[in-house]
Amino acid sequence: MPKSAPASAKNGVPCWAAVSAYARSYCRIKQIEPLLRQAHSQPISDVPAVVQFDGIGLRAQTQSDTIKLDKRQRKRHKRTGKKLVLLVALGFWTAGLGKREILDWQVADNEGKAAWETLVNRLWERGVRPENGRHSVIRDGCGELGEAVALVYGSTVLEQRCIFHKLPSAG
Fold first, then answer.
1. CA atoms within a 13 Å half-sphere pointing along the CA-CB vector of 69
2. How far is CA 109 from the centre of its chain?
3. Nearest CA to 120 among 96, 80, 101, 147?
4. Which residues does residue 55 pair with via DSSP β-bridges, in sequence order?
5. How far is CA 34 from the centre of its chain?
6. Is CATH 3.30.420 what the domain over 44-170 is classified as, yes or no?
7. Strand ranges (E), 75-114
8. Angle 116-86-118 (CA atoms, 0-180°, nearest 5)?
9. What pTM value is reported for the model?
10. What residues contact residue 48 under an 8 Å CB cut-off, 6+ apart?
11. For the chain, which residues score pLDDT lower than 70?
């Protein structure tokens, strides 16, 4: 690190501060990656009776070096967004426990069969199987998710359409 901070760099942020912040973020990400791999591969011993699958739409933004003026004529970096979906498997335990927990998740480009199949297969490999206590699946009307569940579980689990996903089409 330099002995004295430079007066300023782009955007008035001292260069060493920006580099230091980047290095800290990079180190944190590198610390998190092994924990994520472990979380996505660790066996699930307490298998819930019901698993709900759903996709949550997101937009990931990135900032470019291009500068543009906003409505108030302030200089801002131009941002671009990419649509993504967060695929989530939420477990519900019965027997009066009232327990619910995210079992697994993954970020995907869309809710296609390949993406759902990856998540459902990973749950199977981690022990979320009918013989371990899983009885039913709650899902939206996504056909690709239905195909992935049928491919991995066959007819060994009950499938229930989510009532909240049915309401808009009921009215």
1. 3
2. 11
3. 147
4. 87
5. 16
6. yes
7. 75-92, 100-108
8. 25
9. 0.70
10. 91, 92, 93, 99, 100, 101, 103, 128, 133, 134
11. 1-29, 162-171
